[in-house]
């Protein structure tokens, strides 16, 4: 016979807060808070949270808002402003550690840092996004990508997606544009 857990040792959660009961806390937010925020080892591999979220969305057909904490596609998106751009450039040069810029490292939950690819996109943010994607480019290519993405954003009336950015960048870096 298994021993019944003591009161306070069970947490009732659901993925994305969706489930049998309305209002249950979201698993991804609760375990991230306990394990990362409070440093209590739950014995869970948090790196699978982002993938679990993606699978859950495909399985249920319910898409989460991109700004969903912890697992949202934009949970770690940085705005385009001079302060952030300066921090990123310092990070590239070995200055400011990433953890000083973000609440916690997105890699801890299987997510990744992204750059906001919408109105107000700066050249520096394009350069930073290329580096996040592991792409190297010349100054001229960065300028071409910046102009192309801004044109796309203007025509769409909405931010560019990661896939659109990658498509434009790949075409310019390959010399197709």
Overview of the molecule:
The protein has 177 residues and is mostly helical. The chain is built from six helices and four strands. The chain has helices spanning 27-37, 49-60, 82-92, 123-132, 139-156, 162-173; strands at 13-14, 25-26, 77-78, 114-115. The protein has a two-stranded parallel ribbon with strand order 1-2. A two-stranded parallel ribbon has the order 3-4. α4 packs across α5 (139-156) and α5 runs antiparallel to α6 (162-173). 21% of the residues are buried.
Measured as a percent range, the helix fraction is 40-55%
Distance between the termini: 69 Å
- Largest sheet geometry: 2 strands, parallel
**How many DSSP helices?**
6
What's the alpha carbon Rg, rounded to whole Å?
Answer: 20 Å
Shape: elongated
Low-confidence stretches: none
- Beta-strand percent range: under 5%
Strands across the major sheet, in which order? 1-2
| Average pLDDT metric | 82
Give the beta-strand count.
Answer: 4
From N to C, what is the helix and strand string? EEHHEHEHHH
Helix-strand makeup class: mainly alpha
């Amino acid at each position: 016979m298994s021993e019944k857990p003591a009161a306070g040792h069970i947490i009732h959660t659901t993925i994305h807060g969706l489930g049998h009961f309305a209002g249950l806390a979201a698993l991804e937010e609760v375990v991230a808070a306990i394990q990362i925020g409070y440093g209590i080892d739950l014995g869970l591999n948090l790196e699978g949270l982002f993938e679990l979220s993606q699978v859950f969305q495909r399985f249920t057909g319910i898409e989460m808002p991109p700004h969903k904490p912890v697992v949202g596609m934009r949970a770690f998106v940085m705005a385009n402003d001079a302060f952030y751009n300066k921090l990123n450039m310092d990070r590239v040069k070995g200055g400011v550690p990433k953890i000083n810029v973000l609440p916690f490292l997105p890699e801890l939950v299987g997510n990744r840092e992204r750059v906001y690819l919408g109105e107000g996109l700066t050249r520096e943010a394009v350069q930073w996004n290329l580096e996040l994607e592991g792409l190297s480019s010349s100054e001229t290519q960065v300028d071409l990508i910046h102009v192309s993405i801004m044109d796309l954003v203007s025509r769409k009336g909405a931010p560019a997606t990661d896939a659109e950015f990658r498509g434009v960048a790949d075409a310019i870096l390959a010399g197709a544009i």
